[in-house]
Amino acid sequence: MRIYKTRSIAADACKNGRVTVNGVQLKPSRTFKIGDRFSVRKGPITYSYRVLQLSENRLSAKLVPEYMQDITAPDQLELLELARLAGKTGRDRGTGRPTKKDRRDIETFMSDNYLDDFDWEDEGI
Prior knowledge:
Elements: H1 7-15, E1 19-21, E2 24-25, E3 37-42, E4 45-51, H2 64-67, E5 68-70, H3 74-87, H4 100-110
Antiparallel strand pairs: 1-2, 1-3, 3-4, 4-5
């Protein structure tokens, strides 16, 4: 149902205990029934789904909501959002390691006396 990109990745996840059905770890050959609840652990987040219908063939992405319902807990979705925000901080990807000047600028910015040099009276504060 398009949770994993390939069947071999899904089978490895089952073997490593990352997929559970109704709270029980499962083997890759396990068949589902309508109404089963299964959880998939990807990194720090555990996604939960409920089976609505069964299909014999691979589905297009548009049809997936008709066959399974996402019932992931809000606290898990919050973890996902925090991870997404944490990834946006720092340097841009592909810019390489910080130079000496970059490192000095970062250390100056992170120091406690960074705002001591700021002229507050000129800003009207």
